[in-house]
């Protein structure tokens, strides 16, 4: 069974068509990069998966659950990391992790919380600092740790490497790849051509409201990938 299956999904906002027959399938342990410029429909796709929006036509299925009909049940299998991860500024990374997992009905002791944050790449020293001192990359690591604690089957990432320096971007990719290796399906909405070449198993070019090209990035170099992307956007 696919972790995520979107079938002929259409979504309009007034006269503007955001998605026009989007088909997308994602299996366990797979990293799929949804590539497109701002306004291409990437965030709309994520909001449909989360059940915050309902498709005008088509089905969004998460682990066998219709996300439009049972959004709360579908979201039990999803972890979402937005472009800017919101944490409580005066609380430490450890406290933020334990707080948000408690809201999800989980109980973590300090030792397990620290283990998860370490796996996500946050140093022991940083784990005890207030989140207001964190960089974007550090906040994302807390988000990844929350996803791991919840054993999420589907991880949604919205422009995760935007604003990260090369070192932080590479570290974030390592953590995401490790999550996929543990069986988590990852959908990454991005326009970062370089990073997806190193991270994604498949790349979908989102154009005119549908996946116009489904690419194996391992078969292409960065130049060829960029050329396909630009050609699709020009049609």
Proportion of residues in β-strands: 25-35%
Structural class: alpha/beta
Low-confidence stretches are none
Q: How many helices does DSSP assign? A: 9
The major beta sheet can be summarized as: 6 strands, mixed
Q: Give the overall average pLDDT.
A: 89
User: How much is the radius of gyration in Å?
Assistant: 18 Å
Q: Which strand order does the major sheet show?
A: 6-7-8-3-9-10
- Helical amount: 25-40%
Protein name: ABC transporter ATP-binding protein
InterPro entries: AAA+_ATPase, ABC_transporter-like_ATP-bd, ABC_transporter-like_CS, ABC_Transporter_VariousFunc, P-loop_NTPase
Organism: Steroidobacter agaridevorans
GO molecular function: ATP binding; ATP hydrolysis activity
Q: Main traits of this protein?
A:
235 residues, alpha/beta, six-stranded mixed beta sheet, 37% helix, globular, ABC_transporter-like_ATP-bd, P-loop_NTPase, nucleotide-binding, ABC transporter ATP-binding protein, transport
Description of the structure:
The chain has a domain at 86-152. It is 37% helix and 26% strand. The protein has helices at 42-49, 71-75, 93-103, 110-119, 124-127, 136-149, 166-181, 193-199, 222-234, and strands at 4-13, 16-26, 31-35, 57-62, 65-66, 78-81, 154-158, 185-190, 202-207, 210-215. The strands form two sheets. The protein has a six-stranded mixed sheet with strand order 6-7-8-3-9-10, with helices on both faces. A four-stranded antiparallel sheet has the order 2-1-4-5. The two termini are 34 Å apart. α3 (93-103) crosses α4, α3 runs parallel beside α6 (136-149) and α6 (136-149) packs parallel to α7 (166-181). It is globular, with a radius of gyration of 18 Å. The protein has nine helices and ten strands. The model has no long low-confidence stretch (mean pLDDT 89). With 235 residues, the chain is an alpha/beta fold.
